[in-house]
Write the structure tokens for this entry.
Amino acid sequence: MALYKLEDFAGNYSDADFDDYEVRDFDVYSDIDDDKVGTVKHILVDDSGHFRYLVVDTGFWFFGRQVLLPIGRSRISYTNRRVYAVGLTKEQVENLPDFNDLEHVDYDYEERVRGVYRTPMRQASLETSTPVDAPPVSSDRNTYTYEDEPNLYDMNQQDHQNLKLYEERLVANKSRVKTGEVSVSKHVETQTARVAVPVEKERVIIERTTPNEGGRTVSPAEANFREGEVTRMDIYEETPDIQKEAVLREEVKIKKVVEQDTVEAEGTIRREELDVNTNDERLHERRS
């Protein structure tokens, strides 16, 4: 039955379901005389994740020693961050073997621990002590289970409960909603355009002249009288040739900009507060 430190078995236990059992650094007191025994340093679990031991640094009773306290022999008070060792005596702590590291924790070591908690001891020395009315427990390392001794390893709701205080908080999230739409389109308009085109036109000018003194005498050879003689001259003029061409008149760019604004929201939230009613002057409340 291998044992593990809780922080090694479940590295994120402090942020998960194991947060109900974060008792490291809780002060350990004996419930017999309310003497301070020490401080919880580690929690040991088995292969299945069940809590089996609290590692207690007994700095107040025996400086420099760490011993194991079976979880069933503990009573946890989360309100004042204490662990009460049920029925623990200074004599038992003296008889417990030192806890140094998990490599030395085996069945024989646990049997030495269980032997101290099972019954009161007649002598202080563990090697020479004899249990009084020891309960019938399997001594076979191959058949022994922690369930064989529920008084050492069972956790009950009364002694290991955790009172949680809740409060509500306003959580601000944002969502995008459509608040409008801008549509940009184009259409074709028709209008009459006018353009001035300079053109040239030819026209014929006929000029008649009369020689001085009633005319000039010509020879019979020059005087060639021909009936029906015609002289032709082509007349031209320019006419406008109108064509259309498309040109880029204007370019429109469409884009969006984001404006920053702050919107305040409010809501009613609830918060639980702890009410402690006691006449016991030994109760001290600490916040962590």
Observations:
- The radius of gyration is 56 Å.
- The longest strand covers residues 36-45.
- The domain at 4-153 is CATH 2.30.30.240 (SH3 type barrels.).
- The chain has a mean pLDDT of 80.
